[in-house]
């Protein structure tokens, strides 16, 4: 009787070595496929407007109030290809003279009679700044009419503004809907 086990083992080794040799003898080729493109911004924001291309973004003491406060206004143009939500940050103090109390800080963005705002502190003692609109402002179509960015900083407890340089930053954010 013939023992098929050794014969099967030798045959299997011969077949597998043939397959391995065939696989090693074939050359491999690779090619990178690069994809690129440009997605234009759906929204852009520019400080200034056609009527006032370089607005003053400085602010000054409020002459109608006895409290120590500063107010400022700037035009901002929104360029967009889609509907957008506009929001604004609380004014961030960058630099103020020693002794200036800005426990109340507020910024707002207006489009006609609609607005959005962000604030910290109490608006008590700040006539004209008591309105509140924390929800983002929806702009359904871009127009050439500028948005108006306003800010106030100060304290109802202060009696005067110390002499010196005041720097604040307000961030306007436009998010596509």
Supply the key terms.
single chain, mainly beta, 6-stranded antiparallel beta sheet, 3-stranded antiparallel beta sheet, 11 strands
Tell me the Rg in angstroms.
34 Å
Q: Estimate what percentage of residues fall within beta strands.
A: 35-45%
Spans of at least 5 consecutive residues with low confidence: none
Average pLDDT figure: 76
Q: Indicate the overall shape.
A: elongated
Helix and strand succession?
Answer: HEEEEEEEEEEE
Coarse structural class: mainly beta
* Terminal CA distance: 84 Å
Relative helix content: 10-25%
- Sketch the major β-sheet: 6 strands, antiparallel
The number of distinct β-strands equals: 11
Tally of individual helices: 1
Q: How would you characterize this protein structure?
A:
The protein has 177 residues and is mainly β. The protein is built from one helix and eleven strands; from the N terminus they run H-E-E-E-E-E-E-E-E-E-E-E. The strands form three sheets. Strands 1, 2, 3, 6, 7 and 9 form a six-stranded antiparallel beta sheet that branches. A hairpin with a 6-residue loop joins strand 2 (59-61) and strand 3 (68-80). The longest helix has 22 residues, at 4-25. The relative contact order is 0.23.
Question: Secondary-structure map with pairings?
Answer:
Elements: H1 4-25, E1 43-47, E2 59-61, E3 68-80, E4 84-88, E5 92-95, E6 104-111, E7 114-120, E8 137-139, E9 147-155, E10 167-169, E11 172-176
């Amino acid at each position: 009787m013939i023992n098929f086990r050794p014969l099967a083992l030798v045959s299997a080794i011969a077949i597998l070595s043939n397959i391995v040799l065939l696989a090693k003898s074939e050359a491999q080729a690779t090619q990178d496929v690069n994809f690129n493109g440009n997605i234009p911004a759906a929204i852009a924001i520019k400080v200034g407007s056609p009527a006032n291309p370089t607005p003053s973004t400085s602010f000054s003491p409020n002459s109608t109030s006895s409290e120590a406060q500063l107010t400022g206004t700037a035009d901002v143009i929104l360029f967009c290809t889609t509907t957008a939500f506009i929001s604004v940050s609380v004014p961030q103090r960058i630099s103020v003279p020693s002794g200036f109390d800005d426990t109340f800080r507020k910024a707002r963005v207006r489009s006609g009679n609609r607005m959005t705002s962000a604030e910290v502190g109490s608006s008590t003692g700040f006539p004209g700044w008591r309105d509140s609109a924390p929800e983002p402002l929806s702009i359904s179509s871009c127009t050439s009419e500028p948005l108006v960015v306003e800010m106030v900083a100060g304290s109802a407890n202060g009696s005067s503004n110390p002499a010196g340089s005041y720097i604040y930053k307000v961030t306007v954010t436009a998010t596509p809907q």
